[in-house]
Amino acid sequence: MRIVLEDVHKVFNQGRPNAHEAIRGVSLSIEPNRVTCLKGASGSGKSTLLSMIGCLSRPTAGRIHLGERLLSGLPERFLTDIRRHTFGFIFQQFNLISGLSVLENIMLPAYPLAPDHRQLTATASALLDRFGLAHKARNPVQWLSGGEAQRVAICRALINDPRILIADEPTANLDTRLSRDFMEQIRRLRESGRTVLITSHDPVVFDSPVVERVIELCDGRVVGG
Amino acid sequence: MGWLRRQRYLLDFILASLLRRKGKNLGLLLVYSLIVFMLASVMLFTHALKREMGLVLQASPEIILQRIEAGRHALIPEDYLQKIGRLRGVTARKGRLWGYFYDPAVRANYTLMVAPERRLADSEVIIGSAIARTRGIGPGDYLTFRAHDGEAYSFRVRELLASDTELFSADLVLMSERAFRISQGVTEGWYTDIVLSVSNPLELEKIAEKLTLRLPDTRPILREEILRTYDAIFSWRQGILFVLLLGAILAFVIFAWDKASGLSAEERREIGILKAVGWETGDVLRMKFWEGAILSLMAFLLGYLLAYLHVFHASASLFEPVLKGWAVLYPAFRLTPVIDGLQVATLFFFSVFPYVVATIIPIWQVSVTDPDAVMR
User: Fold this and answer.
1) What is the pLDDT of residues B259-269, one digit of tens each?
2) What CATH number is given for A34-58+82-224 in this structure?
3) pTM of the model as a whole
């Protein structure tokens, strides 16, 4: 599914003295089944743009299309449904829920869909196996190392089998070796036919041969790609 | 099927959540249970007392006639039974003999009473279960009293009174008329009071009025009045205790509000994560609602159960002096367990409902915002 953005704006604290325009008229077309990287310095607006594409927030003005559907005008309920079925998220801080086990964290996005419990556990276990974490399934997530936590976050993003994977600064908390491992995993996901959108200012990511297109942002505007 | 499974997943997550914050939730559960325990104890105790009063008084005569001397209750002469004359509506009249006896050995007051219908021999008594417990005696044993003239009289215990209305029967000693008159110094021709039975309750007021006119030195006491007085006394005492507990309740409300509504950064982040990974606002609200409901239900059940044990198995030892009043001089009595549905519902409504609402409102505020804003 192609993602199209038309003159998208995002203003935080609109109408207040501390109003801040994070995105200023971005128009873009993101091809399906490719790995696209949004590159830019801190504060360039790449995470804000990604969160709007992933239905985590709405644009203040402009339109976002996902295939034939116009996302920017949908009510919250429909956005949640699209988020649940279409997108998988990998966050910068991994955003795992501490106190829960690795397996429970991975299964969390599937709870509202209420699949058969045995089947869900089998899917989650298969994912853990694929990412070499089967032996950690029952461990609480706070016991994991940075690399392990990120792999758990990837497993969680894949549990509902989404077509688009969104990763916000995925290597910010990883060393170079783990960052390269991560890009290798992205390559495999790309091969399985998924669209991957990454934000990063890490050269290991945007210079990686896995990334097919780099879009550069500066002060809320597209300046390259 | 799908709906059920969804609730199961929610419940799984809630239980895991509750266990994750063991310290906070356990503290909240303890304080919450304590408040329910205190309120339920007072309510159960007062209700049980009132019910026993009601039961006892239901079986008692409709009118008690007492002679008054210098404003005090005095013995009434036997010929007053004739002086009353014919009164329409009065179906029976008789003189009663009763009095109090303070037993210094156990420091408790007994009520002595003549019960002609029991056909007791002059050396026999029937006693309440609390006296039997306090003195450690049973049927066949002997109970000794010091009479009004200093003489000691021993009575054989024929049987114990049934304990279904222990409040009244607990301290009761039934004896023959002769034994009572000799031991208490009440000469022939005198009674403690006179009781009248009236079948039509609408005639009570009129009969009482006629009695006052015919026997100006007496006062008729209606059963309804006694019931009303007891009810007022115990409601008043319950009110006093509630006022005393108000501080504790207020402290709890502040505590609950703070704990329930003041969402920590961690909780806000978690709601953001859940929404980001595809949970609907409704799912988050349902989850938090059940979390609050489980906690408050557990506290309610625990508090109520402890209150039940406290009132009916430990004689409400914490509130006894305030609620029983002078009755603490009784030999300790045990109340018959009774639970009033309306009372349980009231307590439930005022303890569980506000907590669940206090929990839901701030969570609703957080959960309707964009998940991206929650995580920032």
Assistant:
1) 655 677 788 88
2) 3.40.50.300
3) 0.67
